[in-house]
Amino acid sequence: MTAVDAPPLLRRTHHVLRPDATRVVSTPFLPGEEIEGAGLSRRAVVLARLLALPDAEVDTALIEVLTSFSARHHDLVGLLDERFALVARHVEDAGVLSLERRRLIGACMSQEYAIESAALFNPSMVAHPDQSGLPEGALRFVMSVRGVGEGHVSSVGLRTGVVDAADELTFDTPGPTTTVPVRHDIEHSRADLRRQNDELAGDRDDADELLRALPDLFGPTAVETSPRLAWLSACSYDVTFPAPSAIDSRVLMPRSPAERCGIEDLRLVEVAHTDGRSAYLGTYTAFDGESVAPHLLETDDFTTFRVRRMTGPGAKNKGMAIFPRRVGGRYLALSRWDRESNSLASSDDLLHWDDLGTLSAPARAWEIIQVGNCGSPVETADGWLVLTHGVGPMRQYGIGAMLLDLDDPRRVLGSLAAPLLTPSVDERDGYVPNVVYSCGAMLHGQTLVLPYGCSDAAIRVALVDLPALLARIVPRS
Fold first, then answer.
1. Where are the domains of the chain?
2. What gap in Å lies between CA 452 and CA 450, rounded to an integer?
3. Distances (CA, A) of 188 to 126, 201, 240, 305
4. CB of 89 within 8 A of CB of 47?
5. Superfamily designation of domain 10-21+115-186+236-475
6. What family does this belong to (predicted)?
7. Do residues 180 and 156 make contact, with C-beta atoms less than 8 angstroms apart?
């Protein structure tokens, strides 16, 4: 093949996914408590007004709610019943109220939250667990997306689609409603909670004393007397979506005190375990309004998700990305614990991570401010391909690449001298200008399918010729 006939190193597709303000979920709305620290709740006086309404007005108001909002929510009636249950103990003779009045109270204790109203960006892509019914050479995928809504709170949404044998992408159109999961408390390991307690700032003596008295495994009620341990135990949990719901209707919202201001930048990867089982793992940044911490997410089917808080010197700050298999008997992950360099971390249990040292630090002009990863490494015959990001002058982001040794990923074999991708003219403007950023690409044959966020305003896709990319990576001096 001549140079003229050779495929381009990278080409952008025509796809542009923009924020969709019609994608809403319902969240609790307790009057007077919607703004933290605003003063006494107005819940009691609002409930008194609702109890005083004539029956006919209650019936009319409820019909209006059901008519206007049923098409926007999965099982709206069930949702209103759940919301009434939140305040039922504050309602005198709640058991004798009519069903209509209870549901109208539930509606007044609810609000819609548009999960993508401010921004949509920073995707990662993995192969779908169901590959049935596809033509030869096609691959179905799941893509995670970061949506930002009112108050700059981030959540994780999902999209699905297919890449065919000719590398043509088709995204499925999400349905008209979104689905949120049910949260489940879990048993906790005393050893794991002790590690978390050791790392958490503040006085830990009382918590240490309680931990010494606990069994190896215990439920969250065992630590209710310790605010510190109760906070830590609430940070690890399971959630389950209704099985009939479509994957692209499912939304992961903040469900713990560590996430109350957002779940950011999920990096998904399919990981092969030593027992032959594979699972989808992801790391994301939990933000509580003051501090950030990487958390682990695991699922086998995108229906049940397990969320765990991580510890160790390698699990700090943002941007962890797990390798798709163990190396040398241990799990490995890319880390940016120092906020500006690419490092390597290792773990025996996916929860506690040791630091194995720096892989790359800011050096070239286009990455001189900081570097990080753009998702989990991709295994190739030549080595572990790591997509990176760099921040340079005017806070412009670029996506680069480096290659790590397959057997000893601490060895950097080479890296791109210049960015693979920088913002084009039509990608520069958005909520955060001059950014291109990905949380994970997917290999399809000899093509790297690279979804990326553009200036925190939209998601686009680039197709990278893998052999051409590997050939361009420069040996390290």
1. 10-21+115-186+236-475, 24-114
2. 6
3. 30, 20, 18, 16
4. no
5. Glycosyl hydrolase domain; family 43 (2.115.10.20)
6. Belongs to the glycosyl hydrolase 130 family.
7. no
**CA dist 41 → 32, 38, 261, 329, 390 (Å):** 4, 8, 21, 54, 46
CA–CA distance, 15 with 400 (Å, rounded to integer): 22
The answer to whether the beta carbons of residues 440 and 282 sit under 8 Å apart is: no
* Orientation of helix 205-213 relative to helix 227-234, angle to 10°: 70
Closest Cα to residue 298, out of 280, 315, 316? 280
What are the structure tokens assigned to 269, written together? 């990867």
How do beta strands 169-171 and 119-127 pair? unpaired
Tell me the two tokens of residue 439.
Answer: 């949380």
Print pLDDT tens along the chain (477 aa): 444 455 689 999 999 999 999 999 999 998 876 555 555 578 889 999 999 999 999 999 999 999 999 999 989 999 999 999 999 999 989 999 999 999 999 999 999 999 999 999 999 999 999 999 999 999 999 999 999 999 999 999 999 999 999 999 999 999 999 999 999 999 999 999 999 999 999 999 999 999 999 999 999 999 999 999 999 999 999 999 998 899 999 999 999 999 999 999 999 999 988 787 889 999 999 999 999 999 999 999 999 999 999 999 999 999 999 999 999 999 999 999 999 999 999 999 999 999 999 999 999 999 999 999 999 999 999 999 999 999 999 999 999 999 999 999 999 999 999 999 999 999 999 999 999 999 999 999 999 999 999 999 999 999 999 999 999 997 655
Rounded Cα distance between 363 and 101, Å, is: 65
What tokens appear for 147 in the block? 């949506």
Residue whose C-alpha is closest to residue 146's, from 438, 441, 422, 426 = 438
Amino acid in position 113: Y
Output the CA–CA distances (angstroms, integers) from residue 247 to 129, 159, 356, in the order listed.
11, 7, 36
Under DSSP, the state recorded for 440 is B
Sign of CA dihedral 352, 355, 359, 364: positive
Question: Does residue 307 contact residue 287 with C-beta atoms inside 8 Å?
Answer: no
pTM above 0.90, yes or no: yes
